[in-house]
Amino acid sequence: MNTLRTSRATVAAAAAVVLSFTSAGFANGAAGAHRDNGDKITVGIKFDQPGIGLKTPDGTYTGFDVDVATYIAKQLGHDPKDIVWKEAKSADRETLLQRGDVDFIAASYSINPKRAEKVDFAGPYLLAHQDVLIRADDDSIKKPSDLNNKKLCSVTGSTSAQNVKDKIAPDAQLQEYGGYSECLTGLENGVIDAVTTDDSILAGYAAQPEFKGKFKLGGFKMSNENYGIGVQKGSELKAKINTALEKMVADGSWQAAVDKNFGPAGYKNEPAPKIGVVVQ
Hints:
alpha/beta; three-stranded parallel beta sheet; 9 helices; 13 strands; globular
């Protein structure tokens, strides 16, 4: 009898361990499940995009995506102190979601069909466009075709500048730098005539104190970039985040965040997008 009781106890203990591991797996990786992290919520953002998502030297986080994510987290029941910020580099975003490393991602994450095969998107919450940034006193670039014979900068690996050369200004002189900060320094010094990427990203950089008043956006709208909140495929968070985004627009917090992060660059934002409507 003692042996039988011992065997039963051993089986029960093993079953409990399996159940514990299974539950943890569902909490951290199963589609539709919220990560089991106590009161904490883990959010992926960019760490290196001023005005969008930036980790400052003092360890705080600023930018439009940060403000949007903070608002969403609050609507999900989390105080700002409960947010664990995780860097979401462009190449890593789908993997972070699929592995369950983050609850959601707000990182200038444009919705497109290829990405939507791997993850779900709430939103969109911002309609951005490919644009150019030029010096505030430069009146020679008034339309996209004026970029012909101009020195056009973008970062290494970006397709933005090549898109302009292929489709709009074939005689543009492409210059690739390691980062947008380098492009802006070149623009400030007259080595570069224009910098191109999403207008929201350009506005974020131009709004930084060291560049304030030195640059302006062209307003060319050369593409549509629908920023969405990335969540795990099949996640129950998608509907909840959409509800939070609608409330953010309705109570004025969305426009306040746009003005705060992009306003100093003279960014003329599109109206808040309608949830589920992706502009082609």
